[in-house]
Design a protein that fits this description.
- The chain is an all-alpha fold.
- 66% of the residues lie in helices and 0% in strands.
- It has 10 helices and no strands.
- It starts with a helix and ends in a 5-residue tail after the last helix.
């Protein structure tokens, strides 16, 4: 048996996927931290261009440059301090230089990235569907965290997610391509109609355009028939958590609440368990 065949064994693949997913989770932490800042830098440059002035010079900043550093003391993170989960535990959740606390969210996201990969590998085996499930779920995780932190759902992530869903479903990885195309259109239009209905009725904006694109992406991956379940799940989770946060006084009644994390959670649930949930609890659709 060659090396590739050994990795593809059902008892081996999930562990390999777990290790790879932990590394991807570490990268997702960088994406969540840097993408909103990259967007803001781009907006400032565009504003300067519109005003007819040169944008202020700024050092290069993207997902690779500069190297990760402690936000408190600026000390560069060394390679052995960047091992997923293990480094955080070894450093006891503190910077090796200034001893400033490092958020527990970093290892949690790394574990989530690994768990997603291991479960997808165990469920789908060595297949295109396993890779697609990983990419879809990792991107949903990053979008959920960015939206929670900033109320942004960046086009740089949502739009490639739409096209990625259509590309994976060219070969029917999850649903037929026709269902994926209709799902993308229906996902966008459904929330677009809700947005304009709410705005015409109240004069206020109930959600952002990023939510439309995120649901379009979910429709592109899972097909149009799964959209009612996604909307139902996201609404239920959003209502329960929203009321809980207000009662716990962790969120003001007048403060906007991002819907993206609930859509992302519903999309992940529908990916892995949607057909079973639909068969048990929902009437047949299509």
């Amino acid at each position: 048996m060659d090396f590739a065949g050994w990795i593809a064994l059902p008892e081996v693949l999930p562990w390999v996927a777990l290790a790879f997913g932990l590394c991807v989770g570490s990268f997702l932490n960088v994406v969540v931290h840097r993408v909103p800042r990259m967007m803001e830098r781009e907006w400032r440059a565009q504003c300067a261009e519109i005003e007819g002035r040169e944008p202020a010079p700024a050092p290069r900043y993207n997902l690779v440059v500069p190297r990760s550093a402690c936000p408190s003391c600026g000390r560069m993170v060394r390679a052995h301090e960047n091992v997923p989960v293990a480094s955080w535990l070894f450093l006891r959740g503190r910077c090796a230089g200034c001893k400033a606390p490092i958020s527990v969210r970093y290892p949690v996201v790394e574990v989530a990235g690994g768990a997603i990969a291991a479960y997808a590998a165990a469920r789908y085996g060595a297949s295109l569907a396993a890779l697609g499930a990983m990419v879809f779920s990792w991107t949903l995780l990053a979008l959920a965290l960015i939206d929670y932190d900033t109320q942004y759902l960046p086009d740089d992530l949502t739009l490639p997610l739409v096209w990625g869903g259509l590309a994976f479903n060219v070969g029917g990885a999850f649903v037929p391509l026709s269902s994926a195309v209709i799902g993308a259109m229906a996902g966008y239009l459904s929330l677009w109609l809700v947005y304009w209905g709410f705005k015409l009725a109240t004069g206020k904006e109930g959600m952002g355009y990023g939510d439309f694109k995120l649901l379009a992406a979910i429709g592109a991956w899972l097909g149009w028939a799964m959209l009612p379940l996604v909307i139902l799940l996201s609404s239920m989770v959003g209502a329960i958590l929203g009321v809980a946060m207000i009662l716990a006084k962790r969120h003001g009644r007048d403060k906007p609440m991002p819907f993206g994390p609930y859509l992302a959670a519903a999309g992940a649930i529908a990916l892995f368990w949607g057909p079973e949930i639909a068969r048990r609890w929902l009437p047949p659709i299509g």
